[in-house]
Amino acid sequence: MILTVTSDGAIALLERDDFRRLKFALPPGARVPAHEDIAILDADHILISRELIPNLTPTADPAWLSSYEAMIDTATRYGWVDKTTQRIKVHIEREP
Question: Nearest to residue 1, comparing CAs of 47, 63, 43, 57?
């Protein structure tokens, strides 16, 4: 899955069925937008709420949600989910 910023500053989800990777692709000149479901952790990472991605997927069916939760469970085992806030750590990839 790829989170990105559109030209109007909105957050968009690309490759919604790729449950094996997650990144935040930042277009040239764009900044991480202010959003209640996103916190900037450092120059290379953000923390997102567990609800952000499902909220960007209005057609998410039970099978999709199950796959998403399995992805988050795996991320949790590898230390990519903050134990206190339950926010997901996502790498920022700056596009050239």
Answer: 57
70-83 residue pLDDT tens: 999 999 999 999 98
Domain residues of the chain, as ranges? 2-94
Using CA atoms of 53, 26, 14, 60 in order, give the dihedral in degrees to the nearest 10: 10
Measure Cα distances from 3 to 16, 32, 50 in Å: 9, 11, 13
User: How many CB atoms within 10 Å of residue 3?
Assistant: 22
- What pTM was estimated for this model as a whole? 0.90
